[in-house]
Amino acid sequence: MTMDKKYPSRSEYRRSNGLKKSFYQRWWFWIIIILLIVGGGAGGYYLYSHSQENTSNVQKKTTTSKTKPKKKKKSVTTSGITLKQYNSIYISDKDGLSLDILTKFFGKSKTSTVSKVNDKQTNMETWSKIANGTKNSKLIVQFYNDHAIEKTISGLMVDRNSKITLVDYAKIDNDQTTDQVTQTLGKPNYYSETNVDGTTNTIYKYTTGLDGEDGANCTINFTNGNVSGKSQTGLK
After folding, report:
1. Which end of the chain has the lower number of beta carbons within 10 A, N or C?
2. Which residues cross the membrane (predicted)?
3. How many structural domains is the chain composed of?
């Protein structure tokens, strides 16, 4: 036997014996495997990245909804008849405003009392909805022959820089004007005015912010715009 004879290679041996490579030994098999791995990884990355994106969007929406500022509630303003409207009520037994005119501005009165004087009808109308007023505040207007001759507004709340004292009250002298009185005592809680036969009588009454006993008050009377009298109770 000669020693130069070589063994057939593996491929030669398989071809001579009619053997074929197993499918996992074929080059195309591994290419398919590689493609599947690469494709599967890409698909997995695609799903993962989109799931993260969706989660991020949900978190953003949740954060946005939590940090959304709340709308502030509008504050409520007390409405009703104002002191300015009270001052604009013209009173006179000759040509004072009629009840119909005041009803158009203030609405129907809460209470009404009707009587007759010298065959002329008189009636007293009361409105209870007063701006910047206490629970018991009210406007009263008295009519004679359908002309407003008297008006009163009471229960007004007033902020004072300092309490009214007996010394302040003593500063009020006859013939002082309404402006001079308010410069000394401030605005009153109660106003009343009548106009009959051309004479105007006015009353200012102070019931809050006084230095004195419980229930302390002071009243200033005016005739045609000047002080004609005063009284006080419980001031110190």
Report:
1. N
2. 27-48
3. 1
